[in-house]
Design brief:
The protein is α/β, with parallel strands linked by helices and 122 residues long. The protein has a single domain, classed as Glutaredoxin (3-Layer(aba) Sandwich). It has a 6-stranded mixed sheet with strand order 1-2-4-3-5-6, sandwiched between helices. The radius of gyration is 13 Å and the shape is globular.
Length: 122
């Protein structure tokens, strides 16, 4: 996978480093019926680093959900596509459509939004 597509140390959050890999991942998402949580962040953002362990823990808990991390400095074109103006921003996507959004490092709101989507699925 090289440096263009990697997983964090716990192996559960996919970090995408190129537009090509994003496009490839997006196409596989469209073919699935999975909920995807896109974590738009930046390595220079304190709140992003602060919430990262929480995101890793959620990815471990909600194994049926795909967690993807995008650095807005590395991939600004993807951030623009999703109208991300503040980091961190978490966009929940299902079948190619946004179904939820949490702006800021609000662990509680993010978890509630994820759980709400889980309930709608069942």
């Amino acid at each position: 996978m090289g440096n263009l597509f990697s997983r964090t140390s716990n192996g559960l959050v996919i970090t995408i480093h190129s537009k090509g890999k994003w496009n490839q991942h997006w196409q596989s998402h469209l073919a699935s019926n999975k909920l995807m949580v896109i974590d738009f962040s930046s390595s220079t953002c304190g709140p992003c680093r602060f919430i990262e362990p929480e995101i890793n823990a959620m990815a471990a808990r909600y194994t049926e959900i795909e967690f993807v991390k995008i650095d807005v400095i590395e991939l600004p074109v993807v951030a623009v596509m999703w109208d991300v103006q503040v980091v961190p921003t978490f966009v929940l996507v299902k079948s190619g459509k946004e179904v939820g959004r949490v702006v800021g490092a609000d662990k509680k709101e993010l978890e509630e939004t994820i759980q709400q989507q889980q309930k709608q699925r069942h």
